[in-house]
Amino acid sequence: MTRLTALVVARNEAAQLADCLERLVFADEIVVVLDRTTDRSAQIARRFGAYILEGAWEREGQRRNAGIEAATGPWILEIDADERVTPELAAEIGFLIAVSPFAWHELPVDNYIGPHLVRHGWGGSFGKPSYPGLFRKGAKVWGPQRVHPRLTLDPHKGPRLENPVEHLVDRNLSDMLQRLDRYTSLRAADLREAGDPGRLSTNLRRVLTRFWHCYVGRRGYREGGYGLAIAICAALYPLLSHLKATLEEE
Length: 250
Fold this sequence. Notes:
There is one protein chain. This protein is an alpha/beta fold. The chain is built from seven helices and eleven strands. It has two domains: about 150 residues, Spore Coat Polysaccharide Biosynthesis Protein SpsA, Chain A; about 80 residues, no CATH class. Strands 1, 2, 3, 4, 5, 6, 7, 8 and 11 form a nine-stranded mixed sheet that branches. Strands 9-10 form a two-stranded antiparallel ribbon. β6 and β7 form a beta hairpin.
């Protein structure tokens, strides 16, 4: 039987971690990476028999790569603390890894704001329609960026799974705006480090193109106010990142 490691990377996610791990007990192993955690996350992870890797990593990719390295199974399911694996998805994963000749598969995602399932309009760093969350060890490597690290993936991609991960993106609009502020600060640090914050004119144009992409191209208009809020945040992301990179000190 093919072994599966469920990998969760978290920082002070005690409010969500138990619900996440409860859905992962079908895996042969659970690895929980705790980055500079000061809450009860470690105690919660121990209740589920998880292998706990604690440390301090400045970059998201560093801590995720550390978790991948700690996994002992040939297949890894990478899940965030705000995501939930349904029983249907768990059964599909179990069947797939027993027969798949591929290196990795994308998981579809249902994104929620509070109790509202928001299907349309996601993009531009806000929400994700799918992601390469099921992969063989060695098939996926995270890059060094602070936010949304680039991925290096084995070219042997398999078909996307049918059953979605439930992603609890934000509790409300205030959470969404706080996330925009946090992400743009991290992105600004990456831009300063690279020495290329971009041009103001280019990022102003991207406001329009990204808004159109999310609100019209990805049919965010079908989600009412939620779709509008997502499109605005996605549109402002590159501009605010640029402004923080050029106007603020790290």
